[in-house]
Amino acid sequence: MLQPVAVAHKQLSDYASIVGRPLVDEIRERADRLKGKRILHVSATAFGGGVSEILYTLVPLMVDVGLDCEWHVIYGREEFFNATKVMHNALQGNPQDLNEAQWETWKRYNEINARELSGNWDVCIVHDPQPAAICSLVGEKARHWVWRCHIDLSTPNADTLAGVLPFLNCYEATVFHMPAYVPIGMDGRAEVFPPAIDPLNPKNMAFSSEDAVYICDQFGIDVDRPLLCQVSRFDPWKDPLGVIDAYRIVKEQLPDVQLALVGSMATDDPEGWDYFNGTVAHADGDPDIHILNNLNNVGAIEVNAFQSHCDVVIQKSTREGFGLTVTEAIWKARPLVGGAVGGIPLQVSDGESGFLVSTVEECAQRCLEILQDPGLGKRLGRAGKETVRSRFLTPRLLRDWLELFEKLEP
Questions:
Q1: Contact 8, 56 (CB under 8 A)
Q2: Number of CB atoms found within 10 A of residue 378's CB
Q3: Which of 25, 209, 321, 407 is deepest in the core (most CB within 10 A)?
Q4: How far apart are CA 271 and CA 290, in angstroms?
């Protein structure tokens, strides 16, 4: 069998004071009509990245409302994840397609995992391209199949997309973050709803300023000086080198400014260490640039502290499927400067709940404006938090999934 993931117990009722009783009541009504349905989530990893963070909350909430829900992780070795990283980058626009051997590796591991997949599910939800071929191999193991895409498919490498699309034909429904990500050929099978964050998990729960200051101080941050922070994987699409360049422009006018680049190293991202080391090299020993990851004991609580304490949160992505780190940051009422790409504009209204930028120079200028006008930062932060409260918290995502299950079960 595939590796099952153990999840904590969560209760939908705990979220009522945050998202409102009407949404909780609607979820309960929908769930009552689906009680006992067997739901399986299949993903590439249980560690690192937005997909796993979503599922650690979504799965136990599905269980709490009466579904028989599990989450299984596929088997893969380095050769598989090397191939799927090329696939991931190509589907987000990189010109390099998989070579013939990499395509064969992807198919072979999908065959292995398809054989090991247990059966008798009402709905099997396959997340992202890594295990996408499983449905075409063992469609009889679930009554309904859904492919959930978490990446930006707006300008994919045409050859790579053409190689993947035939394996998606067996899915009864596909789900994307935004209409712009839906490729031609879905034939009315596409659903659109964005992801969400859990406001009660350690990364997003309310944090006192004293606790945030204490934790940041433990990592060498001078808590009395201004701090810029980007939380993301070490990935070319997140542009950590561009963030460093923007910081250096800011530092010319505000010499006291510091930068924290905080990320996690995911098990399905073999290139991560290359980009991490490249980021360290680009920092060139600057003592005011702090580059940290989960192997430096930076976990959910520490990320919360950095986001809660910093003066400006940056997410200078050049590609972004959605950007859950953006959601997390603005939930903490921090002013955000983000790339005008992918799902970031879905979350941020430029000049109202944050700033959208396209260049290093724009990023630096907006950071300076916020640092020089604390009142501006507070206004942006408050507006952003209300956007997240109304649109991007997990109970809304749960409601969307239940609505889709009802469509599949007329």
A1: yes
A2: 14
A3: 321
A4: 21
| DSSP code per residue over 318-335 | SS-S--HHHHHHHHTT--
Written as one string, the DSSP assignment of 264-295 is: ---TT-TTHHHHHHHHHHHHTT-TTEEEEEGG
Q: Report which residue type is found at 335.
A: P
How many angstroms separate the CA atoms of 408 and 410, rounded? 6
* Cβ-contact 144, 122 below 8 angstroms: yes
Task: Write phi, then psi, for 312 (nearest 5 degrees).
Answer: -140, 130
Percent of the chain with pLDDT strictly greater than 90: 86
Alpha carbon distance 157, 307 (integer Å): 34
**Whole-model pTM?**
0.89
Per the CB < 8 A criterion, the answer to whether 322 and 50 are in contact is yes
Task: Please classify residue 14 by burial: count the beta carbons closer than 10 Å to its beta carbon, then call 0-12 exposed, 13-18 middle and 19+ buried.
Answer: middle
Strands 227-231 and 312-315, sheet pairing: parallel
Amino acid letter, residue 237: W
What single letter denotes the amino acid at residue 397? L
Comparing CA positions, the residue from 86, 130, 91, 100 lying closest to residue 112 is 130
Cβ proximity of 23 and 31 under 8 Å: no
DSSP codes, 222-247: -TTS-EEEEES-S-GGG-HHHHHHHH
Tens of pLDDT, residue by residue over 374-405, are 999 999 999 999 999 999 999 999 999 999 99
Tell me how far CA of residue 51 lies from CA of 42, 58, 127, in angstroms. 10, 10, 8
DSSP string over 142-174: EEEEEEE--S--SS--HHHHHHHGGGGTT-SEE
The per-residue pLDDT for 266 is: 63
Single out the residue of 22, 4, 59, 18 nearest to residue 401, CA to CA. Answer: 59
| Number of Cα atoms under 13 Å in the Cβ half of residue 365 | 8
Please state, in angstroms and rounded to a whole number, the distance separating the CA atoms of residues 65 and 59.
10
